[in-house]
Design goal:
Layout lengths: L9 H13 L2 H8 L3 H15 L4 E3 L4 E3 L1 H28 L4 E8 H4 L3 H10 L4 E8 L1 H10 L4 E5 L7 E16 L10 E2 H4 L3 E4 L5 H12 L5 E5 L3 H9 L5 E4 L11 E7 L4 E9 L6 H17 L2
Parallel strand pairs: 3-4, 3-5, 7-11, 8-9
Antiparallel strand pairs: 1-2, 5-12, 6-10, 6-11, 6-12
Helix pairs in contact: 1-2, 1-3, 1-4, 2-3, 6-11
Length: 304
């Protein structure tokens, strides 16, 4: 069992250091801007808590004891460490320092998120941000395990442990090679895409399941001939003429991909709500809360 710790205050530690430096109650009290009786009471209470005498007093001078010298060295380290800790805590609370881990669907991570991260970090250069790109299931796992501070994904259907805060809508679009005959169309239906090879995401992707469900409802059988795990790869393969595809609108807001034409998807029009996902009853850190607030504000400004 650990011995009970004494009840010490920073003011008592400062009193020991001032007395050790000046050797006078009058000078130390002036340094600390307290009365001499108040300084005497501080020291008496401290010595009572420690059970040792730190200073020998006489009518002319105050002399530190061996125990006092050892305690003064400890007091100086404690005050220095406390000052550093207080500064660090304030920086974290004011979003000047910290770490935020965001687990995000690929369409947003490669689309609108970079500009929003840049806006956040412009005023908080000391905050470190980690982006984990993934599919719906992996984002939920990251949030549930605590690996991520929050997720950005579809919020239409969430498990009980998660809380969703809608940001906006994600409208799906067709992507075709720029020289493809469908590239001149104003809109493309799933039935029209079914006549061509499809570059698709894996079946565990919520994007893929949304598209497949819509195709089944429309009585359309899509021919997924190439399956990739990254939207950037999907777009690159479409640009190379491998096939056509369907992607969330966020994926089309990033840098243009050479050789790819984005065409609105019609019949049926696919729309899902996208938003922030947090772990129920988990309080966000100041840096994470600040980033989520910025994302909500910027999303409203850009619209759906």
């Amino acid at each position: 069992m650990r011995a009970p710790l004494p009840d010490l205050s920073a003011r008592q530690l400062e009193a020991v250091l001032a007395l050790a430096e000046y050797g006078s109650f009058i000078a130390a009290a002036a340094r600390l801007r307290v009365s001499q009786p108040a300084l005497t009471r501080l020291l008496q209470k401290l010595e009572s808590e420690l059970g040792v005498r730190l200073f020998d007093r006489s009518t002319r001078r105050v002399q530190i004891t061996e125990a006092g010298r050892e305690f003064a060295a400890v007091a100086e380290r404690m005050l220095n460490d406390l000052g550093i800790t207080v500064q660090s805590v304030r920086e974290v609370a004011q979003e000047r320092r910290g770490l935020v881990v965001v687990s995000c669907v690929m369409s947003v991570a490669g689309g609108v998120l970079p500009r929003m991260i840049a806006a956040y970090r412009s005023g908080r250069p000391g905050v470190e941000i980690h982006i984990r790109e993934g599919v719906y299931a992996s984002i939920l796992d990251d949030v549930r395990s605590g690996v991520a501070d929050f997720g950005i994904s579809y919020v239409d259907e969430l498990p009980d442990f998660a809380v969703g805060m809608p940001l906006g809508r994600e409208v799906f679009h067709a992507v075709v090679p720029a020289r493809h005959k469908l590239a001149k169309r104003r809109s493309i239906s799933l039935a029209e895409l079914a006549a061509h090879p499809i570059v698709a995401l894996p079946t565990e992707s919520r994007t893929r399941r949304t598209i497949d469900a819509a195709a089944v409802t429309a009585g359309v059988q899509l021919r997924q001939r190439v399956v990739v795990t990254q939207i950037a790869t999907l777009l690159a393969l479409v640009g190379a003429g491998v096939g056509v595809g369907v992607v969330p609108g966020g994926a089309t807001r990033g840098p243009p991909v050479p050789g790819v034409k984005v065409v609105p998807l019609a019949e049926p029009r696919l729309v899902r709500r996208i938003g922030l996902i947090t772990l129920r009853e988990r309080e966000a850190t100041p840096a994470a809360a600040g980033l989520m607030a910025l994302l909500r504000e910027r999303w409203r400004q850009q619209g759906d």
